[in-house]
Amino acid sequence: MAIVELKNVxxxxxxxxxxxxxxxxxxxxxxxxxxxVVLVGPSGCGKTTTMRMIAGLEDLSAGSIRIxxxxxxxxxxxxxDIAMVFQSYALYPHMTVFGNMAFALRLKKLPQAEIEKRVxxxxxxxxxxxxxxxxxxxxxxxxxxxxxxxxxxxxQPQVFLMDEPLSxxxxxxxxxxxxxxxxxxxxxxxxxxxxxxxxxxxxxxxxRIVVMLDGNVQQxxxxxxxxxxxxxxxxxxxxxxxxxxxxxxxxxxxxxxLQGEGYRFRAGDARAAGLAGKAGATVLVGVRPEHLKWCGxxxxxxxxxxxxxxxxxxxxxxxxxxxxxxxxxxxTAQLDSAIAVEMGQPIALTCAADVLHLFDAQTxxxxxxxxxx
Amino acid sequence: MxxxxxxxxxxxxxxxxxxxxxxxxxxxxxxxxxxxxxxAFSITPQLAFAPTLESFRTALEQGSGYWxxxxxSLFSAVVSTLAGLLLAVPAAYAMAFYPSRRTDxxxxxxxxxxxxxxxxxxxxxxxxxxxxxxxDNLWGLTALFTAMNxxxxxxMAYSYFKDIPRDxxxxxxxxxxxTVQTMWRVVLPLAxxxxxxxxxxxxxxxxxxxxxxxxxxxxxxxxxAVYIAxxxxxxxxxxxxxxxxxxxxxxxxxxxxxxxxxxxxxxxxFGAVK
Lengths: 373, 274
Ligand SMILES: Nc1ncnc2c1ncn2[C@@H]1O[C@H](COP(=O)(O)OP(=O)(O)O)[C@@H](O)[C@H]1O
Ligand SMILES: [Mg+2]
What we know:
The complex is a heterodimer.
Chain A: E1 4-11, E2 24-30, E3 36-40, H1 47-55, E4 62-67, E5 70-71, E6 82-85, H2 97-107, H3 112-126, H4 141-153, E7 159-163, H5 171-188, E8 191-196, H6 199-205, E9 208-213, E10 216-221, H7 223-228, H8 233-238, E11 245-251, E12 257-260, E13 263-266, H9 269-272, E14 282-287, E15 293-294, E16 305-315, E17 319-326, E18 329-336, E19 346-350, E20 357-360
Parallel strand pairs in A: 3-8, 3-9, 6-7, 7-8
Antiparallel strand pairs in A: 1-2, 1-4, 4-5, 9-10, 11-12, 11-14, 12-13, 13-16, 14-20, 15-19, 16-17, 16-19, 17-18
Helix pairs in contact in A: 2-3, 2-4, 3-4
Chain B: H1 2-33, H2 37-41, H3 54-61, H4 66-97, H5 103-112, H6 122-131, H7 138-163, H8 166-174, H9 179-208, H10 211-216, H11 224-229, H12 239-269
Helix pairs in contact in B: 1-12, 3-12, 4-7, 4-9, 7-9, 8-9, 9-12
Adenosine-5'-diphosphate (ADP) binds next to helix 1 of chain A.
C-alpha cells in the first residue's frame, strides 16, 4: 500500500531526439493511499503508456514517479514492488497455475510453506483452488483472467496495475469480474491503477477517474464530479451513455437566457456566472438525454424548451430512446416508456435548469463551473 | 465423383513413382554394400545375389579405421552444435528482446554470409588455419563448423524468441526476475522445442559436411566424408566397399533423423508458444 505520485510525466517515443506529439504529456497525479484510480480514454490516448511508465517497462522522457515516497523513475520493474495484470494475462504457458502464482514468491526465495499458504489463500479468494495443477492452456478465458489476478495478489505489492484486464471476456463475465475486482480492492486496500477504454467500467469501478485524450489529461475527478461537472465538451460527451447533446445558442442581453432555432434555455443559478459579459455571443449548451422530459402543451411557456420532430424511436423497455430533429439538429432524449411517441410526430421537450451544461463554443471549455477544489 | 477418384489414384501413383526415383539410388547403394566387388561391378545389374558382409569388413579397416573417422565426425558435429547454441542463444536473445536500430541489418548481414560459396573464402581461411597450425586439427574443424552454422542458429533462435509474447517476458520482469532469470526460467523453456530442432538441424548439417572436411583435414582430424572419399582409388574395384562405407556413414544420422523427425517438424512448423 502506498501513495503514487506522478509529476510532470512526459513520454515521447522518439527516443533521445523527441519527435512527433508526446504519447503522454505532462501527467500529474497524486493518489491517496489505497485508492482505486481508473485511466480512461479512447484508444491511443496514452493510457497504456502511462501504466507502463509506472511499471517501469517504459522510460520517462521527463518528470518523475514516486511510489510510497521513493523516487522510482530510474528503478527497474523488479525493484518497484508492483504487480501488473496484462490485457493478454501473460501467464507463463509452461507452468501450472500454482507455478504461475508462485513464480514471484519463489524468486523472492520465500519459504515453501509460506508460498504454499499464500497461493492457496489467493486461489480460495478467486475460486480457482481446483485449477492449481492445470496449465494455462487448459483454462477458459475467465479462469485465466482469475489466475492473472491471483498472480498479482499473492505478491502483496504496494501497487496493482491493471491494463484493460476485462476486455477479452464476454459481457456477462466482464460484469461479474468487475464486481470481483472491486471486492478484492475493498478487502486488500492496495493502491490500484486500472486502465479501460470503457467509460461504464470507469464510472462503476473508479474512486477517481483520469480522463485522457491524445496524451493529455482532460480531467481528474470522482465519477459523480465527472458526470455533473465535466470540464470540457470531450469529457462531457465521453462520460455517460447515450452521449450528451450539444446545441449552439446565442446568449441573451440578460446574460442568462439562451436562444437557438427551435429551442430556448435559461441557465441555472449555478452556471449563470459563466455567461457574464457574453451577451450576444454563441455558447454550446449541453444537456444529457436522460435529463430531457416530455413536455405537455401546458408547459409551452417553460424556460427550457425544445420543439422538433421525432426521427427515430427505440423502445428499451423501461425507457424509450427518441431521436428528435430540432431545427435541423439531431438530439437524443431518453423518455419514460409510458409516453407514446411515434415517428414523424411533433414533440416538445423540457428539462430542469440545474442540469444544463455550458461550454465555450470555440475552446469547448466548460463555463460557470465552481472554482476547482 | 468418378473422375475425382481417378485423378486421386493417378496422383498417388505419380507420388509413389517420384518417391521411388528419389529413393532408388539409396536402395542401390544399400544393395551394393552387401555384394562382392565383382557383383557390384557387373554390367548387368543383379538383384538376386548372395549377400556378403565382406565389404563392410574391409571398409571398417580402411585407413585409420571407421571408428577413428566416426569419432571425429561425432565430436565435431556435437561440439560445434553445442558451441553454436551457446553463442547463438544470447545473441538472438539480445536481438529479440533488446533490439537496436542495427538489429535488422545485423540479422540480414549474418544470413547473407551464407550466400557466399564456401570456395570463395577457402584461401583466406586455409592460410589463417595454416599459420595458426589448425590444419588437420579437430578443434579447428569444429570451430569452422560452429561458424558455418552460427547464422542459421542465430536466425532460428531469434525467430523462436520473437514468437514469445513480449507480455510474458515483461510479466516476469515485474514478478521480480532478473534478465538471466527470465531467460532461464521463462524464455528458454518456451523456446526449447524450437531450439532443439535448430540444434538437430545444425548437428545434421555438420555431420554431412564435406567441403571443409576434405580441404582442411587429412587424417588426424579426418571425418567420415574424408573416409568415404578415400575409397575412390584409381585402380581396383571399390564400389561395394564405398557403398558399405556410405551406409556406415549415413545410418547414424538417418536413425537420429527418424527418431527426431516429429520433434523437428513440430519445432520447425509451430511457433514456440502454442
Ligand atoms: N512502443 C511504441 N513506439 C512508438 N509509439 C508508441 C508505442 N507504444 C504506443 N505508442 C503510441 O503512443 C500513443 C499512446 O499509446 P497507448 O499508450 O498504447 O494508448 P492507449 O493504451 O490509451 O490505447 C499512441 O499514439 C501510440 O501509437
Ligand atoms: Mg492500451
